[in-house]
Amino acid sequence: MLEKTYNPKDFEEDIYKSWENSGDFKPNMRKDRDAFSIVIPPPNVTGYLHMGHALNYTLQDILIRYNRMLGKNVLWQMGTDHAGIATQMVVERNLALEGLSRHDFTREEFVNKVWEWKAHSGGVITKQLRRLGCSVDWGRERFTMDEGLSRAVRKIFVAMYKEGLIYKDKRLVNWDSKFQTAVSDLEVIQKETVGKMYYYNYPIEGSDKEYVQIATTRPETMFGDTAVAIHPENEKLKHLIGKNAVLPIINKPIPIIADEHADPEKGTGAVKITPAHDFNDFEVGKRHNLPMVNILNFDGTLNENTPFDGMDTQNARVKTIDELTSLGLMVKVEDNPMVIPYGDRSGVVIEPMLTDQWFADAPKMAVKAIEEVENGDMEFIPKNYEKTYFEWMRNIQPWCISRQLWWGHQVPIWYGPDGKVFCEENEEEAQLAAGKDVKLTRDTDVLDTWFSSGLWAFSTLGWPDKSEFLDVFYPTSVLVTGFDIIFFWVARMMMMSMYAMKKVPFAKTYIHGLVRDEKGQKMSKSKGNTVDPMEIVEKYGADALRFFMAAMETQGRDINISESRIQGYRNFATKLWNAARFCEMNECGFSSNFDENKVTLPVNKWIVAKVKEAAKDVTDNLNNYRFSDSANSVYQFVWGSFCDWYIEMTKPVFYGDNEEEKAETRATAAWVLDRILVILHPFMPFVTTELWDNIAKRDGKLITAGWPKTEKVDVNALNDIDWMIELITSIRSLRAEMNLPAGAKLAAYLKGADSKSLKNMKAFETIICSLARLEKIEVFSGEVSKDMVQDVFKEATILIPLAGVVDFAAEKERLMKELAALDKNLEGYARKLENPGFVDKAPAAVVEEEKRRQAEALENKAKVVEALKRVENF
RNA sequence: GGGUGUGUAGCUCAGGGGUAGAGCACUACGUUGACAUCGUAGGGGUCACAAGUUCGAAACUUGUCAUACCCACCA
User: Fold this and answer.
1) Which residues pair with A258 in a beta bridge?
2) Which of A195, A573, A584, A814 sits 20 to 30 Å CA-CA off A831?
3) ipTM of the complex
4) Which chain B nucleotides are covered by protein, judged by CB under 7 A?
5) What is the pTM of this model?
6) Which residue's CA shows the smallest distance to C1' of B74?
């Protein structure tokens, strides 16, 4: 027996446990079945579920459950990410609470502390995934720092190094002075701010009157200047080229050089060149072989190459301006709108810094990754994201893969005493390569987190070992992820997979939007507008949240969270629950030998056709990754057709005494409910399973129940009942308009009718009276006298002439209008198709489409003509 | 500077060359034997603006305005 009220909390967690315990999430590994696989975008191991996850994982679970029900061999590969910077940051923050820093420990001790933290706070997110209903294969859960994945990382690194795809280089990189590490371009965010532009003079060597005026937003970097550049064709200033300017304060002469980088239109026309601290200047410096003077310490303070050793940049800037002013060299200061780079994690200003780093040759690796998208082997959904992908991939820069952190995969590089490099998968092999007496020291850098994530699609399946899973499930079927991660992850997986596997990591990439707050604002902790998915689950159930996500997911659009809407979908689950209770009360038991194609009652034929229609819609839309359309199809069918009409129409049958009709209707209702549970299961796995298990005992489990095949819909079965629904709606409408008192006895009569309406009316009399709440309905054909009518309806207080209910005159007018419109269309199609210019020059597909439309219009016209005939009889 | 979206009911958004849609909110009525987490009926829109294509445009094209985001640069 079902509980009287739907309460998801009563069963959701238990159902999940039963799935997990009975191995329902494991692939069936049947060789005769197609494989379907998804690798989960790994959440941070110590993270918490946010709304973006809830959307991302819900969509994947829908696809996984759908394909599992199709009978495929399905794998949803689970795993978590070590999230280098993010995790190290959290652990360092905790240490800071005790007044400690990571430098109070050895590297090994610190890394152990991180593992402890993982053991302590990891696993929260995996619990949350369970709560959401994600049917991942837990037995295969991986972690980017586990032994197997670490081995994969080392193997790839060594191979790439030996092929020259990984190299060490002294270059300017984005330096995060908080974490004291290099970061990649993608980890730098540009923020608009109003800063200051400082104009001041550098004296010319050997002259007390001549100056070169320069403009800068960062005067404190002047101590790293090694030249002043002037455009060779700058008429005003080119006479200075070849002379030396003197850096004030430190009185250091630097050459004035000719370089086209110095735009005569911008600033003062003369540019101070600081090769060690500016990306453009770095290039200029290389062109002119300028010395590169580093003026910063790793912690972002100025170093001994400046007069302000140990001072931070802000104070150094003030000091520099003070000194320039007292030397009489300051010209002016202006407000200047500018963009300043910040570290996305640390929030501190990022400084370009000249350091030795490891780089991957992304431009070279991108070639194949681009090709595979061009030739369609990897397809973006929606398609327009491939433009974003191409744009970035075609302009890709070498990828700085080294980080000066402690938490992460240490690069497999060892140095001999002479600095000779040995790149091997482990220390023994490095030692072997170096010779056993050579003392080796290991490079202290670790790899960018995204380096290991880049291997995710194959490393989780067992690479580099031989593995059945790799054979069966690679390439994976689809990657589901947010657009913000295309560069970080999708692009890197494409590059790494093409390198290691020579095959794309996934055949498709489905890109979804961001989850925003109610007003469309980005959710962020600092704004305080985040909504915790677990609170929503607690309040409305996981099914409601999942259905919300699916129903709101339209390709390429962000989702605004809306609690009232989630509540609406909870109500939907309640509605289904109660419909199931209705079935239960009326003893609608599932019977395995029921044949839905043999039902006889029009109502039952109708609902069977409706189910097929809905199932087809859901299937087609899921196949095309149209989540909202597919969710809305089920929703409308369940509420609008099954609950609002079918159940109501069965009541006269159930409360009547025709046992034969009752039996058929019971079986049909049970079958329909069964189908509903199946097609709704990917979206609302919990409530559907709870109902499936409780209402009728079957052999199979819902989670692996077969998905309905797409069948042809019996259109005739739809028409009769649709006719009746229209009639009932009209009567109800009229009743409301007439503002009748409650309990007024009503009767309706239909004056004159064609044989079909007559037959229908007879057949549906009980249903119509029940649903339109009529006392009686009668049909007269031919001439009707007032007496005849009043005699039949003597008990009724009010008579409704049905000819007035269905306004045949208006209906006729409407049909005539439609006919005229159709004729006009047909005229248009005919003209086009008879035009040789169109037929010969337009693409064949367009002509076909036009023909198809013409045929469709013809079909419609026939229908309209038919309808007109019917109406004209009245 | 380059690019990508979006503009439809009070709100949040689907749709898409042929009668303008959903959920929520709103109004009136209703506790009838699944359900008030409900039912029935209703009100509410120049589909941002302009021009073009078309028999027909809210949909296609171009432009304008508004808005969001991405990339690059800024001495």
Assistant:
1) A230
2) A814
3) 0.95
4) 3-6, 12-15, 18-19, 22-25, 28-35, 37-42, 54-56, 69-75
5) 0.87
6) A338
